[in-house]
Specification:
Elements lengths: L2 E4 L3 H6 L1 H13 L3 E3 L9 H5 L3 H15 L4 E4 L2 H17 L9 E3 L34
Parallel strand pairs: 1-2, 1-3, 3-4
Helix pairs in contact: 4-5
């Protein structure tokens, strides 16, 4: 069984808590084991986007540690998924390390929708993976 860590994101948790609950409900219907790591904090996107890469280093380390034991990370935010997939590597290289986050999936129509590539019960629609639920994003 696929075991995923749910990254709700700070904006969704504060403003749209029903989105996180909907993602959990949907994933459980697909027989996916969903967990919410209590040690998760921010994806570090605000620090990286504003140029404070040094301040992002401990945040990325916390993120990696919180989600290290999961098969995948699912988030209702395409921008946070993009941050984890692309910006974390930049932050890690800056601090002299590497970033093992390679499978951060967006449950939105954003970055990398959870698809048949990861879960066989989610069908393909042509060559493009199909989004399975919608959420908001924290960028304009």
């Amino acid at each position: 069984m696929l075991c995923v860590g749910l990254m709700v994101t700070c904006v969704n948790d504060a403003m749209f808590p029903e989105v996180g609950r909907a993602v959990v409900s949907l994933l459980r219907r697909l027989d996916v084991d969903v967990d919410f790591p209590m040690s998760q904090t921010c994806c570090a996107q605000p620090m990286v986007n504003t140029g404070y890469l040094d301040l992002a280093v401990p945040v990325v380390r916390t993120f990696v540690s919180a989600f290290a034991d999961y098969d995948a990370i699912v988030t209702p935010s395409g921008s946070c998924a993009g941050s984890a997939r692309h910006q974390h590597g930049v932050v890690a290289r800056r601090s002299g390390g590497h970033c093992p986050i390679h499978l951060c999936l967006s449950a939105t129509s954003g970055e990398t929708p959870l698809s048949a590539d990861v879960h066989p019960q989610v069908p393909h629609r042509s060559a493009r993976p199909r989004a399975i639920c919608a959420g908001s994003r924290c960028v304009g």
